[in-house]
Design brief:
Elements (H helix, E strand, L loop, with lengths): L14 H14 L12 H8 L3 H13 L3 E4 L3 E4 L22 E2 L10 H13 L17 H15 L8 E4 L1 H13 L5 E5 L4 H10 L2 E5 L1 E2 L2 E2 L1 H11 L3 E4 L13 H14 L2 E5 L12 H4 L4 E6 L11 E4 L5 H12 L5 H12 L1 H23 L5 E2 L6 E5 L6 H10 L2 E2 L1 E2 L13 E5 L6 H16 L10
Parallel strand pairs: 3-15, 5-6, 5-9, 9-10, 10-11
Antiparallel strand pairs: 1-2, 4-12, 7-8, 11-12, 13-14, 14-17, 16-17
Amino acid sequence: MTHWVPDLEGRQGPRYRAIADALSDDIANGRLAPGTRLPTHRDLAYRLGVTVGTITRAYTEAEKRGLIGGEVGRGTFVQGQRHMPPSDPFSWTPRPEPSVVNMTVVTPEHPMSVPMMGATLAAIGASPNLGALLEYAPHAGLPAHRAAGAQWLTRQHRVATSADTVLLTTGAQNAMAVALAAVARPGDVVLTERLTNYGIKTLSAVEGYHLEGIAIDEHGVVPDSFDSACRRLAPKALYLVPTMHNPTASVMPQARRVEIAAIARRYGVMLVEDDVFGFLVHDAKPIQAIAPDVTVYVNSLSKSVSAGLRVGYVVAPPALVPRVEAVIRALQYSSPPLPPEVATRWITDGSADRIAEAQRGEAMARQQIARSILPASAVCGHASAQHLWLVLPEPWRRDDFIAEALRRGVKVTGGDVFAVGRASAPHAVRLGLCHPHSRDELARGLRTLADLLENPQTAMLSIV
């Protein structure tokens, strides 16, 4: 561990930020080399005469900048400064070899949006309409923002909509909360896939919905299981992710979508369709476009354009729009208008389309890397998804595999995280392919996992 102490003399602003700035300077001038282990929070706090909390904030700030990374049980290490070559917007400088490859989340980087953001904010700052963006917006969003959302969803997701049925939210998780609150009450039964997006599990727990999982196969929700659940449980809604299902990355065929919509209409059940990954597959028509009368559609720009904008959309049947708007008012009054203004400008000038196209290309490239390294028998999911489902062969058990992968420097998410209720979770893991900062880092993590799959005797290590 280095005895590094930052020089804070003459640095303005909060102490934690001054420490992060000093760390950045010392990395840039070569005083701290990549891979250097930094002092512990307590040790550095003592040397600087500040609180441990200040050091924690400083290290967190430095990690956000990509300067350092923490490793469980080992400490905090310098990663160096990342850069973005103009020829390849996704070609970040790899982290140093000792760092953990994190595949637990499906959060793509959006490096193309970084330079765009500065120019866009400058243009907004010079706009005579800036003042309007600092006031409360209408509950459903400003008309121009709703119109741009309708254009985006129609162009990139093939949604059947217009500005008057699009309502703005703060990201997809907020859109899910709004959609469900518009059609269900605490205690009501809400159906979802037996394995589902973790976000709906946490949302249902907080809001008091009775979440019930129904059977899925390689094509998504099984119609007979949905029909049976409707008859037995009288649910208010079915939440589902038909395109790039989370976690299995499957895509529901068109005929299955028509069948699911018909069952929902037969029993008066509202479909809450989560289509955040829909931009990755242009030939997958949303259920909303098939049955807009029984579908509340939710989406966001997080996977396609920029996660930090927190711009989400709800598309509701016309009769339900007032109810959705009332829920938005109750939960948050309205979405902050500045992020949707950025999104609207990018949608209008084509920037958002260029970023989404780059994301599609990167997703397919990373899938190709994964499928060239991992055994084909274990890989499930669509070949252009930002994640994949890895089915573990015998004798691997999910918890043993996760623990051994982490011991070797790779973090993955177990299938139990996505299981609804007491349903038995498969011995499988989800891999977020888009989160590692470079293709080389991804490949390194995948080779580690492939080695584990090819040497299952390691699974016996935890058995005594």
